Amino acid sequence: MSAYHTRRTFAKRDLLPTHSNGPEKEDTIFHLSRKQLSLIVLVVQNSTLVLMMRYSRIIQRPDQSMYVASTAVFLAEVLKIIACLAVMYHQQGSWRDFRRMVQEDILAKPRDTLTMLIPSGLYALQNNLLYVALSNLEAATFQVTYQMKILSTALFSVLLLGRSLPRERWFALVLLMVGVTLVQSQSIQSEPSQSDEQSPIVGLLAVLTSCVSSGFAGCYFEKILKTSDTSMWVRNIQLGLSGAFFSLVGMIAYDREVIWAGGMLQGYDWLTWVVVMNQALGGLLVAIVVKYADNILKGFATSLSIIVSGIISFYLFDFQPTIPFVLGATTVMVSSYLYGIDFKTAIKPH
Q1: Of 91, 199, 293, 344, which residue has the fewest beta carbons closer than 10 angstroms?
Q2: Cα–Cα separations (whole angstroms), residue 285 to 83, 142, 237, 270
C-alpha cells in the first residue's frame, strides 16, 4: 500500500468516532470536555451568524452601499473549498500525495461531482434565502422559525432514508409547529409598523422555503455519504464546486447590472467579511464538533442560541418580545429538547 493510500486511510479513521470497551480519560481543551466545547461552539456559531448577518443587512454607514448577498454566498463557497483543500493537504503531509489525492478523488471523478448538483443547488438557494429572511425578520424571530428545518428533515428522513419516527417525536414536531406559529403571529401583527424596506411575510416565506431546501438537501447528502467511502472533505469540495457554480449563475442572472455598476465587493466592510467567513467555515466546524455532541446537547445548543439571539436583539435592535413570542419560543425550545431524547435508539431503519 502506498504512503498516499496509507495516510488517506488514517485520515478517514480520524473523522470517525472511536469506541472502546474500557474506561478512557476524556481529553480536555482549555479545561473543557469535548461535549462542553462542542456546546459552546454550536451556540456561538448559531447565534453569531444570525446576529451578524442581520446586523450587516440593516446597519450601514451613510456613505456605504448595501453589499450584494449573492456575492457573499459565492465567496463563502470559495472559502469553503480552500479550507477543505488545506485540511486535505495537512492530512496527506506532502504536496505530492495531496496532488495525487486531488487528481484521483476529485478531478478523475467528475460524475461524483455531478451527484452533488442537487444538494449544492439547494444549499445555494438556502444560503441566498437566509439573507432575504434576515433582511425582513428580527434575528430572534428568524432563529425560532428556522427550527422548522427539524420538521422538514424529519419528513425527508422518512421519505428518503426509510426511517420511522416514534409517536414522541411526532408530538415534538407538532409542538414545534405550534411554537413557530405563535412566534410568527408577532411578526405578522407588527407588519404595519415595519419600515417599507422590510416585509415579515417575505421573510417568513424565505425561511420556510429555506427549511424545506435544508431538509431535503441534508438527507440527500447523508444518503450519498452513506453509500460511498469518499472522504468527508472531498465530498465538501465537490459540494463547494457545484455550490460555487450555482452561486455564480445566480450572481450573473439576478445581480449582474448592480455588480457591473459598483463592483463585486461594493458595500463590503470587516463585518461583511466576518459573515462570509462564518458562513463558510462555521458549517465545517460544526460538522467536526457534532460527532462529540449527542442530539440532546444539540437541542440545548439550539435553545441557548434562541435565548442569546433574543437578548442581544433586545439591546441591539430594539426587539420587543410579546407574550405570544415568549410562549412560542419556549414551546420551540421544549420541542427541540423532546425531539433529541434517545435519538440513537428512537429512529431505526426499516
Answers
A1: 344
A2: 11, 22, 15, 21
Residue 114, exposed/middle/buried by CB under 10 A (0-12, 13-18, 19+)? exposed
Task: Give residue-wise pLDDT tens across range 128-151.
Answer: 888 888 888 888 788 788 878 878
Q: What is the mean pLDDT of residues 6-30?
A: 46
- Joined grid coordinates for residue 252: 450573473
Q: What stretches of the chain adopt beta strand conformation (E)?
A: 28-29, 32-33, 163-164, 348-349
Beta-bridge mates of residue 28: 33
pLDDT per position as a tens digit, 62-116: 777 888 888 999 999 999 999 889 988 888 888 888 888 888 888 888 887 788 8
Report the C-alpha gap between 342 and 350 in whole angstroms: 18
Quick one: DSSP state of residue 263? -
Beta strand segments in 227-296, E: none
Name residue 32's beta-bridge partners.
Answer: 29
Report which of residues 39 and 137 the model is more confident about.
Answer: 137
- Say if pTM beats, i.e. exceeds, 0.90: no
Query: CA distances (Å), 251 to each of 214, 217, 232, 244, in order?
Result: 21, 21, 28, 10
* Model pLDDT, residue 332: 80
**Contact of 137 with 145, CB cutoff 8 Å:** yes
- Residue 244, C-alpha cell as written in the block: 460555487
Separation between Cα atoms, residue 267 and residue 65, nearest integer Å = 5
Look up residue 273 and give its amino acid: W
Decide which of 260 and 282 is more confident: 260
- Please provide residue 164's backbone torsions phi and psi, each rounded to the nearest 5 degrees: -125, 140
Backbone angles phi, psi at 281, to 5 degrees: -95, -25
Q: Using the 8-state DSSP alphabet, how is residue 194 labeled?
A: S
* Whole-angstrom distance, CA of residue 88 vs CA of residue 98: 7
Q: Are strands 348-349 and 163-164 parallel, antiparallel or unpaired?
A: antiparallel
Average confidence (pLDDT) over 265-290: 81
Q: Among 38, 268, 275, 267, which Cα is nearest to 139's?
A: 275
